[in-house]
Amino acid sequence: MAEGQMVYHFAFGQSPFPVMQCLADGLRENVHQNAYLSVAGLPELRSAICDFHHNYDDLDFTADQVLVAPGSKELIFLMIYLFNGDIYCLSPTWTTYHPQTKLANNSAYIISTRAEDQWRLMPEDLDRTLTETGERTNKMLILTNPDNPTGIVYSADHLQKLSAVLKKHKAVVLSDEIYARLNFNGDHASIAKYYPEGTILCSGLSKWASAGGWRLGYAMFPESLRYLQAAVCSAASHTYSCASAPIQYAAAKALIMREECDEYINHTRRIMGAVADYCYRELIAVGVRVVKSQGGYYIFPDFEVIRGGLAKKGIVTGNQFTGVLFEEASVALMSGGPAFLRPENEYTTRLCFVNFDGAAALEASIKMGLHSPITDNFLAEYCAPVLNGIEALKRWVRSYSNLD
C-alpha cells in the first residue's frame, strides 16, 4: 500500500474501548504486588469470578473450581493437551482451536454448520458426528457463545437440546464464553446452566472488559472434572506459574464493583450492537449474504453474489478474494477458509467492526444516557471509519456485480 493511503481494517478482533476505570485504578493501586501467587489464582479473585457469574449467568461455582491464567487461550491449550480423548471443532470457528489440537497431537473432528441454520450447531448434526466417530468415551466439544467468527448466539432452548445430546454421549463441552457480556440483548445463556456436570466454562477480561493485552483468563470446572482441573493446574505450575499479580489484584477489586461493571457493559454492548446492525443492513442491501450478528465483534458475510464477476478475473478462492479486495478497495478482511475451517473456494469472510474511537463513543453514550438510542447519526460521528469502510466495500461489490 502507498504511504498515507487509507486502509479499512476489518481483520483484527480487539476491543475499541478503554479499560474500565475501576480496573485501571486497581492496577495502579497494586503495582507493588510482586510476589508469586497461587497457581490456581488469587483466592479473592476466584471468589469474585464466582460472584460475577452468579450475578450475570445465575451459575453456582465455588472458588476452588476456578483456575486463573494469563489468558484463557493458555488454559484452552492445556485442556486440549491433557484431555485423553477426541476434540470436536465447528466450522466455522475461531482460528486457534484446531491448530492447538494438532499441536497437542490430539485427534480433531470437524462439524460443519450452515448459514441456513444461522451458523449454529444443530443437535442432530452433533448426535450424528459423535455416533459416527465411534464408541470412545472421552469426547470434548469446543463451543463458542457468542461465536467468533459469526457473531451468533445460542438460546436457552437450543442449548438444552445440545445438552441432551452431550449427555447421551457422555461428552465434555468446553464452552468459550469470552464474549458473553457482549450479547447485544443482554440475555446470554450458558450451557453450564443445562449441562453443569459436563461443562468447562472459559472466559476472561480480554473482550468485554477491553483488557486483551492484560492477559487474564480463567476456567471454571464441574466437580466431575476435578481430575482434569488438577492436571491443568499441575501443567500450569510448570509453564506459566501464575497470572500477573498486579492484574489479579486489580481484577478482584473490579469484578465486585457491580454498578461500574453494569454501566460499562450496558454502554459498550449497545454501541457494538448498533454498529453490527448497520453493517448487516448495508451489506444485505447490495446482495451480500449475512447472518445478523447478535454478540461480540464480528459478522461472517458471504460474497457468493459476485462469484461470476470474480471468476472472470480468475479469482476462485477465499484468500484470492480477500487479497484482491485489499488491493483494489483497501478493505482488509479474513477469509473463512482455511483459517476458520471453511472450504477454500468459499467467499465467506470474517468482518470485525471495531475500527473506531471507542473512548469517544463510550463517553458520548454515557453522556446521552441509556434512555437515548444509538442512531445512525451517532455512528456517523463516532464510528466513521467503520461506516466509511462498509461504503468502500459496497462500492467494490457493485463493481463486480456489474461484471456478471
Report on this model:
With 404 residues, this protein is an alpha/beta fold. The chain is built from 14 helices and 12 strands. The chain has helices spanning 21-29, 43-57, 72-82, 97-103, 123-132, 156-168, 226-237, 245-254, 258-284, 307-311, 318-329, 358-368, 376-382, 384-401, and strands at residues 8-9, 66-69, 86-91, 108-112, 139-144, 172-176, 199-204, 217-220, 298-299, 331-332, 334-335, 349-352. The strands form 3 sheets. Strands 2-8-7-6-5-3-4 form a 7-stranded mixed sheet, with helices on both faces. Strands 9-12-11 form a 3-stranded antiparallel sheet. It has a two-stranded parallel sheet with strand order 1-10.
Tag the structure with descriptive keywords:
404 residues, alpha/beta, seven-stranded mixed β-sheet, globular
In short:
The chain contains 14 helices and twelve strands.
Percentage of residues in DSSP E strands: 5-15%
Given as residue ranges, the uncertain stretches (5+ residues, pLDDT < 50) are none
Number of strands: 12
Which structural class do the helices and strands define? Answer: alpha/beta
User: Using only CA atoms, what is the Rg?
Assistant: 21 Å
What's the number of helices? Answer: 14
| Major sheet characteristics | 7 strands, mixed
CA-CA gap between termini: 28 Å
Helix content: 40-55%
- Described by the principal axes of the CA atoms, the overall outline is globular
Compressed to H and E, one letter per element, the order equals EHHEHEHEHEHEEEHHHEHHEEEHHH
- How are the strands of the biggest sheet laid out side by side? 2-8-7-6-5-3-4
Average residue-wise pLDDT: 96
